[in-house]
């Protein structure tokens, strides 16, 4: 295999800028087909993005002999079925985050990839972005000393701009999303924590529905004790006033702290009363660095940037925090 020829299942809003165009920007990668259940919208997407083929049936796209890799960008409810269908057809798979609805489903997807001996990657793409790689480098270099504690705060109003808008608002339908806005945003944050600090030893958490008529938890609290002794404490609330919104993660070490927003482009390092700021250029296509790593892995030129096992850990943490 010399080129990854992609087919997208679910060419909705998230693929317009964040990911879709990047498949043609990466070396040895080409987007050749897209699928959406609404054929007119699939055709429109293909025309606007200069994609040769479009489908309104996922199975037809999976069976297209020109396609050798599938990017699954549907809501989480369909992730498992489409992943296993694609793996069974021998197609390489790159699936959006959250990997699926829960840890049990993630395990079935991972098991299928191993059984069928077909490569599977999960789109926890922040671990490939320059800002978060720089933070990892500083942590490894002991810039703030041994890590003691991580405190994360994600507070958003019900109409937060961090969530991509969709016509049917599926993100707050637990049957489709797995558990509301927490399940949409927390995978980015929790994956970074395991990427930085390694295996998990213990967890605890709680969740509540504080808004009237809520179908999903809008308040989640979670704690992690990592095997290396680092302690994480996170708070997520999606029903605060607009002026109280916050996106903050502070890593405390023996000699200082690193403070950053997970949905931002700069961070600060404070040691010995001195603060240094690192600013990064916003990425036009936020998934492009990850897609580069995925393509290299699929072509046998690199390691898996985020495996099913990696993503299972994130799903398990969310299950633990919400007591699924």
Give an account of the 3D structure:
The protein is built from nine helices and 14 strands. It is α/β, with parallel strands linked by helices. It folds into two domains: 4-126 and 286-307, Rossmann fold (3-Layer(aba) Sandwich), CATH 3.40.50.720; 130-282, Dihydrodipicolinate Reductase, domain 2, CATH 3.30.360.10. The strands form two sheets. Strands 8-9-10-7-11-12-13-14 form an eight-stranded mixed beta sheet, with helices on one face. Strand 11 and strand 12 form a beta hairpin. The longest helix is centred in the middle third of the chain and has 17 residues, at 181-197. It is globular and about 60 Å long. The mean pLDDT is 96.
Describe, in short, the structure shown:
The chain is globular, with a radius of gyration of 20 Å. It folds into two domains: 4-126 and 286-307, Rossmann fold, CATH 3.40.50; 130-282, Dihydrodipicolinate Reductase, domain 2 (2-Layer Sandwich).
Tell me the CATH architecture of the largest domain: 2-Layer Sandwich
Secondary structure category: alpha/beta
What top-tier CATH class of the largest domain fits best? Alpha Beta
Largest sheet: 8 strands, mixed
CATH topology of the largest domain: Dihydrodipicolinate Reductase, domain 2
Fraction of residues in β-strands: 25-35%
Radius of gyration: 20 Å
Approximate helicity band: 25-40%
Q: Tell me the domain tally.
A: 2
How many helices in DSSP terms? 9
SSE string, helices as H and strands as E: EEHEHEHEHEHEHHEEEEEEEHH
Uncertain spans: none
Sheet with most strands: strand arrangement: 8-9-10-7-11-12-13-14
Q: Report the count of strand segments.
A: 14
In CATH, the homologous superfamily of the largest domain goes by the name Dihydrodipicolinate Reductase, domain 2
- Report how far the terminal alpha carbons are from each other: 41 Å
Mean pLDDT, to the nearest integer, reads 96
Shape: globular
């Amino acid at each position: 295999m010399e080129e990854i020829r992609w087919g997208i299942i679910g060419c909705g809003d998230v693929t317009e800028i964040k990911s879709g165009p990047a498949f043609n920007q990466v070396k040895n990668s080409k987007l050749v087909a897209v699928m959406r259940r609404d054929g007119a919208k699939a055709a429109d997407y293909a025309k606007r993005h200069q994609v040769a083929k479009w489908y309104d049936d996922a199975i037809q796209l999976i069976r297209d002999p020109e396609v050798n890799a599938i990017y699954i960008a549907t809501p989480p409810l369909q992730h498992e079925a489409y992943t296993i269908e694609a793996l069974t057809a021998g197609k390489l798979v790159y699936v959006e985050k959250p990997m699926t609805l829960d840890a049990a489903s993630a395990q079935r997807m991972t098991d299928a990839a191993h059984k069928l001996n077909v490569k599977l990657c999960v789109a926890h793409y922040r671990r490939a972005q320059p800002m978060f790689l720089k933070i990892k480098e500083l942590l490894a270099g002991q810039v703030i000393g041994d890590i003691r504690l991580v405190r994360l705060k994600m507070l958003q109003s019900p109409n937060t701009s961090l969530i991509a808008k969709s016509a049917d608002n599926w993100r707050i339908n637990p049957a489709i999303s797995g558990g509301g806005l927490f399940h949409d945003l927390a995978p980015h944050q929790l994956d970074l924590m395991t990427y930085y600090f390694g295996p998990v030893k213990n967890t605890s958490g709680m969740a509540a529905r504080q808004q009237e008529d809520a179908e999903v938890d809008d308040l989640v609290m979670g704690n992690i004790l990592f095997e290396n002794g680092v302690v994480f404490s996170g708070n997520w609330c999606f029903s605060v006033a607009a002026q109280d919104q916050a996106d903050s993660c502070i890593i405390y070490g023996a000699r200082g702290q690193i403070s950053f927003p997970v949905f931002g482009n700069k961070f600060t390092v404070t040691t010995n009363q001195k603060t240094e700021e690192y600013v990064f250029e916003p990425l036009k296509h936020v998934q492009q660095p990850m897609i580069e790593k995925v393509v290299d892995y699929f072509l046998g030129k690199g390691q898996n940037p985020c495996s099913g096992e990696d993503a299972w850990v994130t799903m398990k943490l969310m299950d633990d925090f919400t007591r699924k």
